[in-house]
Amino acid sequence: MKRVAGIIAILVVLASVVIAPVYAIEENTEQESTTTKPTDTTLEDKKKEYEAKKAERLKELEAKAKAKTDAAKEKRIKAKCQAAQGILKGVSTSAENIKTNRKKIYERLTGKVEELLPGVKEAGIDTTKLEADIAQLKTLLNEVDANFDIYTEKLNSAVESSCQDNPSSFYELLETARNARASLIDSINKVKEFVINTIKPDLQEIKSQLEKQKQSSDQQTEQSTNTSGTVGG
């Protein structure tokens, strides 16, 4: 009986040794199941949510900064716009005078080139290219006139605007006047380049042909004179 009791005691101890780790494993398993690691999908969603909130915050900050900048800008415009309008009025008057003077110069230039045509034709030199040059020059000069009108119109609009009541509108008008001025300068430069790079070389070519004709004519006259002198002798 003592042996049986001893064996039973050993079995109980062994059972407790075997069962305890099982309970521990089950407990750990339950803990792991309740604290599972976040999946890749969950992390990606959280990252997207963070980025979206970050972008929204940045957008709000930019909007506040812009509003603050716009307010400061309008304040600066109001402080200076009336003085600027006085300057712009003078610029507009000056632009009108420059337009008138330039037009006279351009008309004189075009007229002189056109005056050459009859004599050049009479000399038997082809004037097709020169006539095309004159037509193109007139087209370019018309563009200059149109751009002058647009520029002065934009200047006058800025001068006449209520800059104190609507400084933003005044600033926009000023920007359109600046753009019109850039277009005007570009069209004037096109005329200058066309005269230098096209009309001038074409006129030089005609001059060269006329000089060759003159030399040939002089040589023929000289030969004729020499021949007459020899016969007379």
Largest sheet: none
Indicate the mean pLDDT. 78
Radius of gyration: 47 Å
Structural class: mainly alpha
Query: What proportion of the residues is helical, as a percent range?
Result: over 70%
State the distance separating the first and last CA atoms.
180 Å
**DSSP helix count?**
4
* Overall morphology: elongated
Oligomer status: single chain
Q: Give the SSE string.
A: HHHH
Number of strands: 0
- Percent in strands: under 5%
| Low-pLDDT stretches | 1-30
In a nutshell, what does this entry contain?
This protein has helices spanning 2-34, 40-122, 128-160, 167-232.
Task: Tell me what the structure shows.
This protein is mainly alpha-helical and 233 residues long. It is built from 4 helices and no strands. Helix 2 (40-122) packs parallel to helix 4 (167-232) and helix 3 (128-160) packs antiparallel against helix 4 (167-232). It is elongated, with a radius of gyration of 47 Å. The relative contact order is 0.07. Mean pLDDT is 78; it is low at 1-30.
SSE layout and pairings?
Blueprint: H1 2-34, H2 40-122, H3 128-160, H4 167-232
Helix pairs in contact: 2-3, 2-4, 3-4
Question: What are its keywords?
Answer:
disordered N terminus, 4 helices, mainly alpha, single chain, 233 residues
